[in-house]
Amino acid sequence: MQASLRLRIGLTGGIGSGKSTVARMLVSRGAWLIDADAISRRSTAANGAAIQAIADQFGPGCIARDGSMDRDAMRALVFDQPAERQRLEAIVHPLVALEAGRQAKAALEAGNPCTLFDIPLLVESGHWRQQLDLVLVVDCTEATQQQRVLAREANFTSTGSGWTPEAIQKVIAGQASRAARLQAADVSVYNDGLSMRDLDFAVAQLALRFGL
């Protein structure tokens, strides 16, 4: 693939798959990153664009004392009630799409050869695929997902961030299945049992393919 094609690549994978690590490796080789999750977090931070609508829709109990969305409270709500998750997505997703579009335009104007859209729920959303040239999936087993998130939790802080095996399993169950993600993939990386060096080598081969 030639750099002049200016590829639009959708990057996705389940929680704990190593998707963010792969994104960092591609960025280090010249990809322009648009991080949908980071955009979403900014929109739900204190004074974020989504905060007033979240307070109106879900009540003050879903807003933390610092004015941001209370992630633990919202996580408990949306994973137990799919309809509530859809209500939240109806607030946040349009804001993410708007900002992602602005950043994509900036990448195009800069002449970057490869724009990487890091989208955790790419397969689930249903509207991203038509905006992309290909989909890159980072894959691993559910057991590995659990191990990685729990290891990250243990290193997070002395109090942790609220992740338990049950909470992780709820997230996994609420995301697209491995089979669905792999079916949507144009390219995949099986990131299970790989050392960081091996993963970096695999990403380096992809970077060449992507014109980086």
Extract low-pLDDT stretches: none
Number of alpha- plus pi-helical segments: 10
Query: Taking strands numbered 1, 2, ... along the chain, how are they ordered across the largest sheet?
Result: 2-3-1-4-5
Cα end-to-end separation: 10 Å
Note the main sheet.
5 strands, parallel
| Rounded mean pLDDT score | 89
In helices, the fraction of residues equals 40-55%
Shape: globular
Class by SSE composition: alpha/beta
Number of strands: 5
Strand content: 5-15%
In N-to-C order, the SSE pattern is EHEHHHHEHEHHHEH
Radius of gyration: 18 Å
Write a structural description.
- The chain is of the alpha/beta class and 212 residues long.
- It contains ten helices and five strands.
- It has helices spanning 19-28, 36-43, 51-58, 71-80, 82-110, 122-125, 142-156, 165-174, 178-184, 196-209; strands at residues 7-13, 32-35, 114-118, 134-139, 187-190.
- Strands 2-3-1-4-5 form a five-stranded parallel sheet, with helices on both faces.
- α2 (36-43) crosses α5, α4 (71-80) packs across α5 and α7 (142-156) crosses α8 (165-174).
- It is globular and about 50 Å long.
- The model has no long low-confidence stretch (mean pLDDT 89).
Secondary structure: elements and pairs:
Elements lengths: L6 E7 L5 H10 L3 E4 H8 L7 H8 L12 H10 L1 H29 L3 E5 L3 H4 L8 E6 L2 H15 L8 H10 L3 H7 L2 E4 L5 H14 L3
Parallel strand pairs: 1-3, 1-4, 2-3, 4-5
